[in-house]
Structure formats: C-alpha cells, structure tokens
Write a structure and sequence with these properties.
Transmembrane segments: 102-121
Number of strands: 0
CATH architecture of the largest domain: Alpha Horseshoe
Number of helices: 15
Order of helices and strands: HHHHHHHHHHHHHHH
Strand content: under 5%
Keywords: Membrane, Transmembrane, Transmembrane helix
Organism: Dawidia cretensis
Shape: elongated
Protein name: Tetratricopeptide repeat protein
Length: 269
C-alpha cells in the first residue's frame, strides 16, 4: 500500500470512518504486521501530544498545513536562488514535494522538542495509582469452579491448592503453586499466565506482571483480560502513556472492558 494512503487509513481508523470490513482488515493488518502496528502506535502518541496543546484540527490537516508551509518555503528559496543565477539554471531546478511520511516524522520531532512541557500536563504516578486502586480487582477464579472450600492438603491437587491460595489472597503462596503447573494445552497455559500476572501485580512485582500478561497472545481466548490487567499494571507503575495505549485498544475492540477503559481514558486524557 502507498505510504500516504497508509497514513490516511490509520487516521480514518482512529476517526471511526472505516466500514466494518475495512476496520476488520485494519485490525488484521495491525496484528500481522509489526511495522504497521508500530506506525499505529506512533500515530496515537503524536495525536496525544498534539491534544495536550489544545489543537482542534484533525491530525492530517495539521500535517498537511505543515507540509504546505514547507512547500511554500521551498518555492521561496528557489525563487531567491533564481535571482542570483541564470534563467537556464533556474529552469533545471525542481521542487521536490515533501512526502507526508516525512511531515509525519517532522511532527514527531517537534513534539520531542517540547516533551518537557507535555510531562507537566500528564497524570502523575499518584493519580494513576488512584485509578488503579479504583478499578483493579484480582481476576476471579473462573477456571477452577469445582473447588471453593479450603482444600485438604493431603488429597488436593497442586492446581486446587493454587486456586485456594489465590482466592484467599495468599498471593505469594499462590505464585509458587502456579509456577509448579505446566498446563496441558495452550489455553490452560494462558490461564496460568493470567493468574501468575495477577499474583505478581498484587505483590508489586510489576515487571514480572507485565511480562506475564504480554506473554498471552492476541489470539488467546483471554486476550482482552490480559490487556486489561496489563493496563492496570501500567497504571500502578505510573506509566500513563503505556496504560492509555492499551486502554485505547480495548475501546477499539469493544467487549466487556471497553466501557471501563473509556472511563479511565476520560480521566487521564
């Protein structure tokens, strides 16, 4: 796909102007193409930066405005050069239009120069921690429903002991027991990772929690749950930008976490 059309595609996705089929094609491309997914993330980060300065124009209009200014300046510079050179030399000169991708990255460079001001307007770690405390609840035991009472330590399996410790809030003990489980298939392995991540999160081992949630693939049966708790991890760590990126994804995907994700975004954007 032409790069200019690609950026317009990204913009239309974020503006909600894609048809259902186009939106699905966009999400498929984002999942399959790491480079494209990186451009989508960069676009969102730049949009967030512009929003901090009260810009009301759509992002593409802002970029097009900068691009036009550069083109005009290029024309002025060429005209000045013509006054000092012969007409024949002037005829050989060409003004090369600025490609939108360069304008796009120029926008990124501008924002980097003023990132210090941006940081002053972003939520503080104390504020993101308050949001974490408001919205975080350990993921419930929905995968081991048959055992609800405290197990007999001599007859109960490691799995049952792990879930019993988890339900009781004994996360250090649950962590060790979950680590002892291997899982018979990918679905079971992802389940274990989700509960490991929750144990780490409750124990303030935030790096380990993030790794556990990130290890659950986008095509997993609990991908949305993993993203939600990854966002909670970022909020607890005070990394608002990372939390916002994951929360935006949850809103875009819809599902059971979309409303809560939208509520948090309204409070930190």
């Amino acid at each position: 796909m032409d790069e200019e059309l690609e950026f317009e595609w990204i913009e239309n996705y974020h503006k909600g102007q894609l048809s259902p089929d186009e939106r699905q094609a966009f999400l498929d491309r984002q999942q399959a193409d790491a480079a494209f997914a990186g451009k989508v993330r960069s676009y969102r980060e730049i949009m967030d930066g512009i929003a901090y300065y009260g810009k009301q124009q759509p992002f593409a209009e802002t970029i097009r405005g900068w691009e036009q200014e550069i083109k005009v300046q290029a024309g002025t510079d060429t005209l000045t050069a013509n006054q000092a050179n012969t007409v024949d030399i002037a005829r050989d000169k060409k003004i090369v239009p600025l490609h939108r991708s360069y304008a796009y990255w120029a926008a990124a460079a501008v924002l980097i120069l003023i990132v210090g001001s941006v940081l002053l307007l972003r939520p503080t770690p104390t504020e993101t921690l308050a949001l974490y405390e408001t919205y975080y609840k350990p993921y419930p035991d929905v995968f081991n429903p048959s055992v609800r009472s405290e197990p007999n330590t001599t007859t109960t399996s490691t799995r049952e002991k792990a879930f019993a410790a988890y339900r009781a809030g004994r996360f250090e003990e649950a962590l060790q027991l979950f680590h002892a489980l291997t899982g018979d298939n990918r679905q079971e392995q992802d389940n274990i990772r989700l509960y490991l991540g929750n144990c780490y999160l409750a124990l303030d081992s935030l790096d380990a929690a993030g790794k556990a949630f990130l290890s659950i693939g986008a095509d997993s049966h609990i991908a949305s749950q993993a993203k939600w708790y990854l966002a909670m991890t970022y909020l607890k760590a005070g990394t608002a930008d990372r939390a916002k990126s994951v929360l935006h994804t949850l809103v875009d995907e819809g599902g059971s976490y979309a409303d809560r994700a939208r509520e948090i975004l309204q409070k930190i954007e």
